[in-house]
Amino acid sequence: MSEQQAPVSRRWWKESVVYQIYPRSFQDSNGDGIGDIPGIISRLDYLKDLGVDVVWLSPHYDSPNADNGYDIRDYRKVMAEFGTMADFDALLAGLKTRGMRLIVDLVVNHSSDEHVWFVESRKSKDNSYRDYYIWRPGRGEGPPNDWRSYFSGSAWTLDPATGEYYLHLFADKQPDLNWENDKVRSEVYDLMRFWLDKGVDGFRMDVIPMISKEQTFPDYPPEHRERTEYYHAVGPRLHEFLQEMNREVLSKYDVMTVGEAFGVTPEQTIDIVDERRGELNMIFTFDAVRLCSDGHRYREWTLPELKAIYRRLEENVGPYGWNTVFLANHDNARLVSSFGDDAEPWRVPSAKLLATMLMTLHGTPFIYQGDELAMTNYPFTSIEQYDDIAVRNAWKADVLTGRVAAADFLKGMARTSRDHARTPIQWSAEPNGGFTTAEKAWLAVNPNYGEINAEAALADPGSVYHHYARLAALRRSHPALVYGDFTDLAPHHPQLFAYTRTLGDETLLVLLNFSREPVEIELPAGVAVGERLLGNLATPSEGTRLAGWEARVHRVR
Ligand code: TEU
Ligand code: CA
Fold this sequence. Notes:
Blueprint: H1 12-15, E1 18-21, H2 37-41, H3 44-50, E2 54-57, E3 61-62, E4 74-78, H4 85-97, E5 101-106, H5 116-121, E6 135-136, E7 156-159, E8 164-167, H6 182-198, E9 202-205, H7 229-232, H8 238-248, E10 256-260, H9 266-273, E11 282-284, H10 287-290, E12 293-294, E13 297-298, H11 303-317, E14 324-325, H12 335-339, H13 347-360, E15 364-368, H14 389-399, H15 406-416, H16 454-459, H17 464-477, H18 479-483, E16 485-488, E17 496-503, E18 506-513, E19 519-520, E20 529-535, E21 545-546, E22 551-556
Parallel strand pairs: 1-2, 1-15, 2-5, 5-9, 9-10, 10-11, 14-15
Antiparallel strand pairs: 3-4, 6-8, 7-8, 12-13, 16-17, 17-18, 18-22, 19-21, 20-22
Helix pairs in contact: 9-11, 13-17
The structure holds 1-O-alpha-D-glucopyranosyl-D-fructose and calcium ion.
């Protein structure tokens, strides 16, 4: 598949295993029901023992929490609920002491409407901060164009003070910054330096491809009316802005960057991650996670579709780029519930199979908190149980207007809502899963915490947690799993994902049975199953047979 001639550069961030923390839901330390930084600090050994190299912290900044911190009021302050700057410094030091790194979330497509820049900007048309945001007069009685917010409704809100509309691709409390303004860009570069000078090791950049807007502000072209992310991503000056950011800031530090690239296609990826261009190191593309959710509806996906996405990413990124591997984050339902089988007795083996895939595909793996415990979707049944602004706004826009039946809406959300991933981490069988000593956590703990929790996982050598740890160790001792070429051996097989990773004279074979049914594999000539390096069942099958949801990694003979 990929006969690569050019030597691929070796970088620490290619060899790393990244773990995402959503601080609000990780560990509460002071009994207010909200996760916090001291809580994270108390779990650093848990992360180290899991095999984590880099922690990605979802936003920890001062915020009114319209979107749980993705609406930043002060980029240089720590969210009071999470702790203080001293706590942040202690977290960074605690990670470094253990040989781990920290990347933080950079949310600069938009700020909070409570950020002082916006408070000023909305005051008058001649305010010196006016052009920090995107203001336009209406068109007739309505907004300037037909752009829609990802959280329902128009992307424009009329502000009575000046009679103009401001743009917000997300909530009305998340006004988009105007990247055309040099002053905005230099403010962003300054705040990046602030955190880099503290010693953070890079950034995950929130919806970064959307920062450059088409300045004529046209209506959506017909082909982009449905999936507007493909319109908003990769605007006219995106590459110019990223190259400037790299020149001004990133190139001066040894850091990693990963852009959240909602709306960027595999074909567009290389222009952002080509190391010769000086933009970002990696991006998250969403074709794989979106396989199972189409808006708020769950979609049945097939394994050949998933494999085709990985091949397409592989073919498009080439020797000068690098991929991420992830299937879950704080914006998607739970990994094992969406891509595995969360019915017993398949939950644990299927979660381990997914772990095996994430850690052996070609790219930097990202683990989302709780997936190492095979945490499952929450049994949501009513609208009141949801916290997420995306759900609440969509309910108002779709159900309360009669466009979607309540039952259909709730059925879809029960499979796709972002809140599934945001329920607190289940640490033990104590009340509230040991997440908090408060009577109630900010979002309900999944009632299955009695069986599914970290204490039980740590005590069980056959747990998903220990499987991740073994995979991390395997990846560390086999550079083929990091740098090796990827070959899909059975692209069209409906239940089997079988591939090799080859570097120099080492070839490893990964066999994954994505179903409850046993399967017998036919391997191509020249590929024979050799020594088993790792498996997910207590009693592994032999040779070319795989039991239901069995996963194994072998040497090739
Ligand atoms: O998400 C970007 C994004 O566009 C989607 O994943 C989005 O969450 C989904 O379409 C809504 O249903 C990023 C952050 O990861 C997300 O948590 C934020 O809400 C969003 O940007 C705005 O900052
Ligand atoms: Ca707390």
